[in-house]
Amino acid sequence: MSEAADILGRARLGNTNVSLPAGLVPANEDDAYKVQAALHDWQRSQGQGPVHGYKIGCTTAVMQEIVGVPNPCFGGVLKSRVHHGSADFSFKDFQRVGIECEIAVRLSSDLPASDTPYDLARIEAAIGSCMAAIEVVDNRYGDFLSLPATVLIADDFFQSACVLGAEVTDWHGLDLADTEGRVYIDGSQQGSGLGVEVLGHPLQAVLWLANRLSSLGRGLKAGEFILTGSLTPVQWLDTGPARAVISIDGLGDVQALFD
């Protein structure tokens, strides 16, 4: 696990395409998450900070079919890669950068590893706030469809950074499944989608994550945040400069600037 994590970490640090020798490709998802955890340890040893939250990917049947997995996947978000309100990025720091329009939640109580599966009521009780969020993703893989999904999972599944909006604590009155998000690039709307696109409801994604982590003997902690999945297809930014804004009804706006 540590050898694969070292290769992934150095590729991330050097901004080079990710690949693993055949003998180091995780055999299954559980092994991929073990490599991912070892990668986070490696990144922390390099001063990149601890994992401060999680992203959930492959939250639609279409993406699961494309990537070749029967379920969602998760990755970690390093504290050093978390921004608030607005953030500036440079194209040179990415292989191919894209943005996703997401509803994020922050936990107000722990969801520890449990032998009994969590239900939606327990998840709702643990959520202290919701936020609009941009997930900044990076295609570090070239033709990612040519790679086993376990390599993508081990490498945090495209995760690079995020920009979190203002926290909304009175979110219970929002119908998150019917909440619309929109993506604007340089003032022009490029996409829109509803919360129902995320496993039928964004909190179903949080429920999935809590139970998946439990199956690995891990849990979620108060103060951590979760990017629940994109309401819209990823918007790849191939030229710049570019100003990306996402707007989510009831949760506000957040922006990322690329130069």
Descriptors:
alpha+beta, Fumarylacetoacetate hydrolase, domain 2, 25% helix, globular, 259 residues
What does this structure look like?
The chain has a single domain (51-258), classed as Alpha-Beta Complex (Fumarylacetoacetate hydrolase, domain 2), CATH 3.90.850.10. Helix content is 25%, strand content 32%. It contains 6 helices and 13 strands. It has helices spanning 2-14, 29-45, 61-67, 120-126, 149-154, 202-215, and strands spanning 51-57, 73-78, 82-84, 86-89, 97-107, 127-138, 159-164, 180-185, 188-194, 225-230, 235-236, 242-248, 252-258. Strands 1, 2, 3, 5, 6, 7, 10 and 11 form an 8-stranded mixed sheet that branches. A 5-stranded mixed sheet has the order 4-13-12-8-9, with no helix packed on it. A hairpin with a 3-residue loop joins β12 (242-248) and β13. The protein is globular and about 50 Å long. The termini are far apart. 42% of the residues are buried. The model has no long low-confidence stretch (mean pLDDT 96).
Domains counted in the coordinates: how many? 1
What is the third-level CATH name, the topology?
Fumarylacetoacetate hydrolase, domain 2
Name the beta content range: 25-35%
CATH superfamily: Fumarylacetoacetase-like, C-terminal domain
Which sequence of SSEs, written as H and E, runs from N to C? HHEHEEEEHEHEEEHEEEE
Gyration radius from CA atoms, angstroms: 17 Å
Outline the low-pLDDT stretches: none
Q: Report the end-to-end length measured between terminal Cα atoms.
A: 36 Å
Structural class: alpha+beta
- What CATH architecture label applies? Alpha-Beta Complex
Give the count of helical stretches.
Answer: 6
- The CATH class designation is Alpha Beta
Please report the total strand number as a whole number: 13
User: What is the approximate shape?
Assistant: globular
Chain-averaged pLDDT: 96
Main sheet properties: 8 strands, mixed
Helix content: 10-25%
